[in-house]
Design brief:
The chain is α/β, with parallel strands linked by helices. It has a single domain, classed as Alpha-Beta Barrel (TIM Barrel). About 35% of the residues lie in helices and about 15% in strands. Strands 3-4-5-6-7-8-9-10 form an eight-stranded parallel beta barrel, surrounded by six helices. The structure holds phosphoenolpyruvate (PEP) and manganese (II) ion.
Length: about 280
């Protein structure tokens, strides 16, 4: 249960208690701490992934993110390493005692993804892919359900209900920015959504300031806002050499800045009465 620092918040109508989702021994999303899930947009090779994993572990992080099956807007862009990417993720995560989150792109490869991951990510483009939602609803793994970039909060919550309708209620929501009239940033981080989900539902809510902004120089600001709005976790892209990243290099934070990022997140977290893991 979230420890609210502001006593009056308990009195607000509709303030619900978040039901934490356990994603590994001692890792609870939606509990007292804020969970940082970090890693590259795409798993590109073993060395690249291992570098990120080593840094996460060194700083006390618990969860490694990385895409193996990538939902790319253009078919000419890098599409991910597929099974090889899943194998790399699992190998390096196990070496450093980390948990894995990776995206399942379709029903076809779901069982393969489940074999290698600890959390199944449903991407923004798939938020209303109902057969996939039903399939993960039958899985025995927690789900990170990203918000469709053109979906309302109501549609997003109904997508979560589709998953629950098949039995799996271990759902973490993730606000990753929505499409608005604004083009200066890739998406618009809907901070309202974070606060609203937190106050009116029992789902843990995370934020992805990388996709929400699309610009490395804005990711920290998005992260600060998300934590201040009550986010239970952050999903953030890091790369040892963003200029060479095979996907989403513009929004990747340099790996050398991960320690600084965590410190800054910790500072805001503490203002909310929460530590970062
Ligand atoms: C990702 O996390 O790499 C990703 C593709 O995100 P989204 O589905 O939010 O675009
Ligand atoms: Mn990405």
């Amino acid at each position: 249960m979230i420890q609210k620092t502001m006593e009056w918040a308990k009195e607000l109508p509709h303030t619900a208690h978040t039901q934490a989702v356990t994603i590994g021994q001692g890792v609870m999303v939606g509990g007292p701490t804020i969970t940082l899930m970090a890693g590259p947009c795409s798993v590109e090779n073993y060395e690249q992934t291992r570098l990120v994993a080593a840094e996460i572990a060194r700083l006390g992080g618990r969860v490694l993110r990385g895409g193996a099956y990538k939902p790319r807007t253009s078919p000419h862009s890098f599409q991910g390493l597929g099974r090889e990417g899943l194998e790399i993720l699992r190998t390096v995560a196990d070496e450093f005692g980390l948990l894995v989150i990776t995206e399942a792109l379709g029903v076809e490869n779901l069982s393969e993804v489940i074999e290698f991951t600890d959390i199944i990510q449903i991407g923004s483009r798939n938020m209303q892919h109902y057969p996939l939602l039903w399939a993960v609803g039958e899985a025995d793994k927690p789900i990170l359900l990203k918000r469709g970039f053109m979906s309302t909060i109501d549609e997003w919550l109904k997508a979560a209900e589709h998953v629950i309708s098949r039995g799996n209620d271990r759902i973490i929501l993730c606000e990753r920015g929505i499409r608005t009239f604004e083009t200066a940033t890739r998406n618009t981080l809907d901070v309202n959504a974070i606060a609203l989900i937190k106050q009116t539902t029992s789902f843990p809510i995370m934020a992805d300031p990388s996709h929400a902004t699309g610009r490395a120089d804005l990711v920290m600001a998005g992260a600060r806002a998300a934590i201040a709005a009550g986010a239970d976790g952050l999903l953030v892209e890091f790369h040892h050499n963003p200029a060479e990243a095979l996907s989403d290099g513009d929004q990747a934070l340099p790996l050398v800045t991960m320690a600084q990022f965590r410190e800054e997140a910790e500072r805001i977290g503490q203002a909310m009465g929460r530590n970062i893991i």
